[in-house]
């Protein structure tokens, strides 16, 4: 180790000449986002009409990380088909398919050789953030520890696993979803880590191992120093339907730094390539309309609103405060408020979809049908004018 590295506090076991690489945890099932994840893996769930993992790869590239690995399990072919070898997104991306889930840490062991040359970062393939990864890694290297965890201050610690640290930010304990009165910290674990290769000494190969449940407690028990780093920028784990909705609208409002697809035709209204908007359409910002869409006359688009690629909005339809995935057709005179529709959903003429309804991919809503507030419809459901056939009105 050079004198400069020593002065910077670099861990003696790290090679700072090695390229900084990333491990993306992308194997989860996304059960709390069901029915949106019925036919879609969680990293492929769209934020601003692009998979959340695509925004993550853009983040890695902006911070000079051009080599990454991802573990896969649920709908892996869709991830491979979209990202390929990563070259279209400016990264070299490789995969490992887990026939059985190995856990957040166990999945990393398949990439021991790839990641073991120096400091590496671990990120959740379904997390929405604009974290300054360069500053995070620099702070990690100064700490001298084997690991660093990005943490975020939260209003309600009972919803998260929280991190307890001392005056030097060395981690001294954890609490899993503590009652507010019992919480020793208001810093939640964001699932964003920086590690030295020696971390693999604490990750058994080929078995289920979790960073938070197994590895970090083992480091505490062995008195191995590791630290936390407060994240001041945006972070959302997209953990449930409400967080997913919030993440999309936060991105639309510019609260998180993401690339917005399309051109801005007026303040806070973006339109994708090849989209046709007929005269007489009312658009109230903020609104994102994807590529290849058709919006017919007298339709009303009231933000915050996101319309996916290839959607058709017929004459007089009203869409307000909602999210449409790609390929959705909304019939003439239909009304959709505060809902989320998966891919290729068809809402026929004069149908109504109420607040907080979530409709899985390829569902058909009949003419004049009503989808009640809070409904959860499984993929490929049918809703007749007289009620439900297939799926479930609420789960």
Structure characterization notes:
The chain is an alpha/beta fold. The chain folds into two domains: 3-252, Spore Coat Polysaccharide Biosynthesis Protein SpsA, Chain A (Alpha-Beta Complex); 263-389, Hexapeptide repeat proteins (UDP N-Acetylglucosamine Acyltransferase, domain 1, 3 Solenoid), CATH 2.160.10.10. The chain contains eight helices and 35 strands. Strands 14-15-18-21-24-27-30-33 form an eight-stranded mixed β-sheet. The radius of gyration is 23 Å and the shape is elongated. It starts with a helix and ends in a 6-residue tail after the last strand. The model is unreliable at 1-12 (pLDDT under 50).
Count of individual helical segments:
8
Work out the radius of gyration.
Answer: 23 Å
Query: Any idea what the CATH superfamily of the largest domain is called?
Result: Spore Coat Polysaccharide Biosynthesis Protein SpsA, Chain A
Termini, distance in Å?
A: 57 Å
The number of distinct β-strands equals 35
Given the helix and strand composition, which structural class is it? Answer: alpha/beta
What's the story with the biggest beta sheet? 8 strands, mixed
Q: The CATH topology of the largest domain, please?
A: Spore Coat Polysaccharide Biosynthesis Protein SpsA, Chain A
Percent strand: 25-35%
CATH class of the largest domain: Alpha Beta
CATH architecture of the largest domain: Alpha-Beta Complex
């Amino acid at each position: 180790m050079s004198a400069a590295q020593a002065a910077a506090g670099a861990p003696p076991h790290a090679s700072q000449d090695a390229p900084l690489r990333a491990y993306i945890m992308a194997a989860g099932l996304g059960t709390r986002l069901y029915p949106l994840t019925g036919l879609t893996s969680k990293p492929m769930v769209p934020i601003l009409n692009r998979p959340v993992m695509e925004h993550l790869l853009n983040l890695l590239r902006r911070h000079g990380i051009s080599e990454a690995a991802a573990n896969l399990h649920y709908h892996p072919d869709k991830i491979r088909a979209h990202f390929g070898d990563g070259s279209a997104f400016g990264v070299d991306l490789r995969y490992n398919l887990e026939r059985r889930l190995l856990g957040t840490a166990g999945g990393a062991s398949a990439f021991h050789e790839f990641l073991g040359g120096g400091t590496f970062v671990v990120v959740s393939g379904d997390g929405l953030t604009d974290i300054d990864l360069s500053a995070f890694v620099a702070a990690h290297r100064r700490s001298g520890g084997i690991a660093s965890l990005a943490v975020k201050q939260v209003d309600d610690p009972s919803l998260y696993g929280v991190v307890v640290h001392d005056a030097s930010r060395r981690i001294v304990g954890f609490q899993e979803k503590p009652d507010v009165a019992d919480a020793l910290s208001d810093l939640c674990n964001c699932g964003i880590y920086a590690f030295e290769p020696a971390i693999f000494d604490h990750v058994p190969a080929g078995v289920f191992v979790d960073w938070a449940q197994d590895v970090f407690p083992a480091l505490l028990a062995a008195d191995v120093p590791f630290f936390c780093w407060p994240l001041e920028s945006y972070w959302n784990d997209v953990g449930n339907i409400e967080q997913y909705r919030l993440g999309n609208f936060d991105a639309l409002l510019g609260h998180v730094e993401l690339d917005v697809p399309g051109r801005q035709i007026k303040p806070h209204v973006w339109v994708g390539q090849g989209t046709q908007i007929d005269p007489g359409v009312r658009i109230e910002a903020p609104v994102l309309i994807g590529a290849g869409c058709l919006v017919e006359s007298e339709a009303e688009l009231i933000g915050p609103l996101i319309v996916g690629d290839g959607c058709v909005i017929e004459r007089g339809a009203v869409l307000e405060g909602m999210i449409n995935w790609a390929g959705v057709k909304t019939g003439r005179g239909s009304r959709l408020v505060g809902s989320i529709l998966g891919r290729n959903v068809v809402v026929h003429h004069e149908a109504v979809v109420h607040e907080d309804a979530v409709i899985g991919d390829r569902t058909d809503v009949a003419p004049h049908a009503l989808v009640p507030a809070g409904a959860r419809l499984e993929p490929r459901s049918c809703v007749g004018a007289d009620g439900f056939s297939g799926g479930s009105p609420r789960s």
